[in-house]
Each structure stands twice: as C-alpha cells, then as structure tokens.
Amino acid sequence: MKNTKTKIKNREHIAKIRVLYLLLAFAISLISIVAISLINDLLIDETLCMVFVTIVFSIVICITIIHKRNGKKIVDFDTSYSRLCLRIFYCWIIIIAGNFIPEFFVPVALLPIILTTVCEEMVSLSVSIYMVVSLCYVHHSNNLVIICYILLVLISQAVSSYMKSIDERMRIDVLVILFTSNVLITIICYYLANYNMTWLILLYAFGLGLVVTLFFGFLFNLLLDKSIKDYTNKYTTILNKDYNLVKDIKNYSLAEYTHAVKVSELSRKCAIEIGANERCAACGGFYYRLGRMEGEPEIDNAIRLAEENCFPRDVITIISEYGGIISKPSTPESAIVHMVDSLVTKIELLDEDTMSSEWNQDMVIYQTLNDFSQAGFYDNSGLSMNQFLRVRQKLVNEESFL
After folding, report:
1. Which residues contact 92 (CB under 8 A, 6 or more apart)?
2. Which of 8, 11, 208, 334 is most buried, judging by how many CB atoms fall within 10 Å of its CB?
3. How far is residue 382's CA from residue 246's CA, in Å, rounded to a whole number?
4. Shortest CA distance to 276 belongs to which of 337, 226, 320, 219?
5. How far apart are CA 185 and CA 178, in angstroms?
6. Three-state DSSP class for 175?
7. What is the pTM of this model?
8. Is the pLDDT of residue 10 over 80?
9. pLDDT tens digits for 162-215?
C-alpha cells in the first residue's frame, strides 16, 4: 500500500505544558515569598534578596526535575507537572498560615507528605527545607526553631518515602513513629529554647502530632493513588483512537497503523502472560515505529514526538530502544515489544501463501526468537529464560500474524 505521508501538525503547545506548569509553580513561589515578607514587615532590600534566592532555587529545582526525569529516577509513576504545581501551592498555603501559628508548632511535617506523592524524594525534601528556612528567616527565628522544623521535615520525608516503597497501604507502627517524633522533637526544641514547659505547650505539641498523623493516615494513600491513577490513565489516553498521534499515524499510512495495532495487541497479551506492565507494552508496541513519520534520524524524532506529547517515561524508553539499534532492550516490556515487532515485520514481508501453513508460522517464530536469545539480545532486559519461553509459546499459540 502506498504511504501517503502527511505533514505532522505543530504541537509545540503540548510540549510547553510542562514549562507552563513549572513557570506557574515559580510564580506561586515568588508571590508567596513576597506575601510572607510583607506580613512580617521585612525591608525592601530583604524582600528583594528573598526573591533573588527564590529565583535561583527554582531554577535549580527545575533543572533537577528535568534531569532526574530524563534519567528515569523520578519515581515509579513519573512526575505529574500539573499536580506538582498544585501541591507546591498547598505547601505555600501551610507556610503562609505558619505566620499566624506560634513558633515550633507550624505543621511543616505535612510538606514532604504532600510533595512525595507526586515527585522524587530529593526534590520533595529540597523544596520542603527551602520553605521552612524561608519561614524561619522572615520570622527571625532562633536556631532551635530551624533545627526543630528541619528534623520534622527529615523524619516526615523518610516516613513518606518508606510508605511509598512498601506494599502495605498503611501500618500502625509508621503512624506511631510519626506522631511520637512530632511531639517529642517539638517539646524538646521548645524546652531548650525557653527552659520552661507548660501544660498548654504540651497540648499544642500533642495537637500538632495528631494533625500530622491524621493527615498522613487519611490522605497520604489517597494522594498517592490519585497520582498513580493519573499516570496509568496516560497509557489509555495515548492509545485512544481519537488521540492526535494515533490519527497522524493512520493518516501517514494505513499499513503502518495496522502494523502498530497488531504489535500493540500482541505485546499486551504477552505482557499479561508474564505479569509485566501490559499498558506500557501496548503503548510501546503501538508507537515503536513512531519515527518513521518524520524520517531520519527516526529514533531521535520518535523520542522528540513522545517527549512533546508527555508520554510516560517507560514508554519513551521502549521507543528509544527501537530495534536495538542504539541500545538493547532494558526492560521486560521493551524486550516483548522488540520480539513482537520483529516477528510481525518478518511475517509481513513473507507472502501469504508461504505463511498459510501453521507449521511455517511456528518455524518463523521459533527461529527468529531463538536467534535473538542466543545472541544475548535480551540479557539486559530482566526477562528470565522462563519468561522468554512463555512469551514465545504465547506467540506460537496465536492463530495468525497476517
């Protein structure tokens, strides 16, 4: 079938969505810094210094986010820039409200709890510490207040990171640790700063610990699940028949579109067979040859299109490993997509009469996949031999690739 290549529409506005959210978060931070400076009657030069520091810090954080995302270190479900912007807004509300709360009792432990559910731990910790240090500076707080807040942030960050990495949705011992640490650290730092203690201070400390613990217990999993759901929904979105890139592939070549659908569906079935990420495999299979629409360099163009359309990072990884040209498959999903695409491409090149026999199709599958396996093509993918054999058998059991 003749390919009818069409000019890909300009989608720079999609690529700029992330930039827009980062700029919005930056604007929120600047406004918040100015607000707390005005609330505390800082001089103009002090306020300007805070603004400049915020600018530098924001630039560093933005670079860190981009670097870690490109390095595949941005948490299991990637960074949602829209939600990150919203969570930063929530955190600044806490900091602004802290201007009206007695020192030592601002719930700063909530900051990493809010941020960790949507971004990488180091980014969450850095932003949280910067916010509490800014609050302490405008208050001209003594060192013990700063120490108190930073300790609370560190413990909260450690607890949040731990809870995100385990299977259990909530554990009572984690809640006890969080509550106890907030109460004890607050009481100890307050006492060392003032060398006195009252029942009212004890009540404040217990109240602070209770607020943080209840928030963590009731909302942490909710926020985390929402972030994961948003990430998994992206898989569905980019495979929707009405999605812009899906339409572009279909307009570019019906044969290419049919190939993509076939590879996507077979990759999904194989991923289910071995318990891999079926959504990732389906998306990777569909967009595996995305770069063909724009020509050479195909892989670079495919990655660019995927980045502009905010694809999940694991899907971009599969696209970047197309054909094993630049790098061999590094994940089970990437190995599956490579196996399926290689077979579908090979069988499509053979005439229908040759492949009409089920025996011929099975022989092509065995020979093709065994050659790749013996060459060590999937050694770095994490695909075990047992999984490889199960995927191969699943493909053999398919009635026809034509």
Report:
1. 28, 29, 32, 131
2. 334
3. 30
4. 337
5. 11
6. helix
7. 0.73
8. no
9. 887 765 555 788 889 999 999 999 999 999 999 999 999 999 999 999 999 999
Give, in order, the Cα–Cα distances in Å from 30 to each of 265, 266, 334: 48, 50, 42
Q: What is the DSSP letter of 85?
A: H
Q: Which two tokens stand for residue 245?
A: 């890139």
Quick one: CA torsion of 341, 380, 230, 96, rounded to 10 degrees?
-150
Contact call for residues 105 and 144 (beta carbons, < 8 A) = no
Dump pLDDT digits (tens) for 74-106: 333 456 788 888 999 999 999 999 999 999 999
What are the start-end ranges of the H helices in 40-120? 44-70, 81-97, 110-116
pLDDT digits (tens, 9 = 90+) for 239-290: 999 999 999 999 999 999 999 999 999 999 999 999 999 999 999 999 999 9
Check pLDDT > 90 for residue 218.
no
> For residues 131 and 137, what is the distance between their CA atoms, to the nearest angstrom?
10
Per-position b or e across 241-275, b if 16+ CB within 10 A of its CB: eeeebbebbbbbbeebbebbbbbbebbbbbbebbe
CB atoms within 10 A of CB 140: 9
Q: Which helix (H) or strand (E) holds 274?
A: helix 254-274
Q: Which residue has the tokens 């180091």?
A: 122
Report yes or no: 290 and 342 within 8 Å, Cβ to Cβ. Answer: no
The Cα 333–Cα 315 span in angstroms is 9
Task: Single out the residue of 250, 300, 319, 303 nearest to residue 6, CA to CA.
Answer: 250
Yes or no: say if 337 and 318 are a contact pair by the CB < 8 Å rule.
yes
Which residues does 379 contact at the CB level (< 8 Å), separation at least 6? 328
The neighbour count for residue 14, using CB atoms within 10 Å, is 14
- The answer to whether 109 touches 155, Cβ cutoff 8 Å, is yes
Q: How far apart are CA 148 and CA 360, in angstroms?
A: 72
Q: Is 140 helix (H, G, I), strand (E, B) or coil?
A: coil
Percent residues over pLDDT 90 in the chain: 59
Residue in 13, 35, 159 with CA at minimum distance from that of residue 89: 35
Those residues with Cβ within 8 angstroms of residue 292's Cβ, 6 or more apart along the chain or in another chain: 252, 256, 298
**By C-alpha distance, which of 84, 311, 117 is closest to 228?**
117
